[in-house]
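seq:
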Amino acid sequence: MYDVIIIGAGVSGCAVARELSRLELKIGVLERASDVCEGTSKANSGIVHAGYDAREGSLKARLNVAGSRKMEALSRELDFPYRRNGSLVLCFDEKDRDRLEELKRRGEANGVEGLSILTGQALFEIEPAVAKDVAAALYAPSGAIVCPFGLTIALAENAAANGVEFWFNRKVTEIRKKKEGYLIRTQGQEYEARAVVNAAGVYADEIHNMVSSHKMKITPRKGEYLLFDKKTGKMVNHTLFQLPTALGKGILVTPTVHGNLLLGPTARDIPEKEEVSTSREGMQQVLKQASMSVSHIPEREVITSFAGLRAHISQMPGLEEGKGEEDFIIEEVKDAPGFIDVAGIESPGLSCAPVTGEYVAELVRKMLNPRWKENFISTRKGIPNMALASGEERERLVRENPAYANVICRCEMVTEGEILDAIHRPLGAATTDGIKRRTRAGMGRCQSGFCNPKVVEILARELQVDESEIKKAGDGSFYLLPLDEEGQP
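struct:
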């Protein structure tokens, strides 16, 4: 019997796991995919929002502002990339100035510090790349950027170091209420827990509906992005938003913590929860709308496109009172005691994650009344980055392990030593996508065209399996087919 089972190993689930690991509890995390951060958390803008968007007084607003304030200290504690670069919300028509002023007023009511409206020379001095016909902008100096998978993996590794058990390829098929707690079934396994946290992203409705008569429906909201080569990464200094609409914050233009330029996302509601293809239409929409914010976008420097899904709640009792549509659902389910929903975590869910974890942990603490752990490990050290290391640090690493001198990914200068670390650390990578998210091998200009065969070879060697067993990510994503006795696939 577990004290708590968390369903979902995205950024919210991993943040909850890390905070719960401060307590004397037996905790497990069930994830349907083959690794942490394979759903919504891996494919988003990587923005730490300042907190001026959410309705004042809402849970979303409180978590956003508090999460934004905590993120920099957390990045030092858990060693993941973060940079406070500030953000600008662009207004293109003087007739919309009142909407910009309203956004500023809402942000101040939410507790966002340092907000100001910039126009003319004051705007172009801090962000020369802004299109010349921008009428005004809301400046939020507390806006920041982060590595979304770096954050999620760091939270998960620290939770594991504190005793949390993670199981992958565990799709939940049934949850049944028992006299004390819940029975959770996956394909071929059963788990019992006194409490359950539902952090299943776009599948949170299916998990919720297994235990509650008050049905929830989540509609995936698809967003397409374009990523540009690092030579364009200094084109803008700040994260540039456009005045938001009902579907989101529009097409943004932002630098990334790794030095690229990122544009997106589009916003389109779709029925399928695994549909993350990209399209010519999506690319054209991103480029067209982004060119309103920044002139002369270097289209030839696009190195990849990708799409992510946001978990938009489209049906839930209470929507008419403002729940769901404008706020997160983070609460114990009324007709399922001991079952906590963490659902509808759209933007700014990544920004909120540190405090979402604390919020849910407090709900669990009140339910189970556990003791605080005396030997909680609060820090985590990430994988060494040879591309950014000093000459002295590189020499030290190579002396300790010559594999750090063997460059595998030329675009990002990722070495064999970094890949070995990614495989053998807690919750180590077992797929090429897992290596990519932990080390950036394959994220450069050639998009793994050069390094991927070597990464497959290293994974197979270290995991002691045949290369035909190595996957890109989930089921069926093999690179090679095994040969029969006659040498045929």
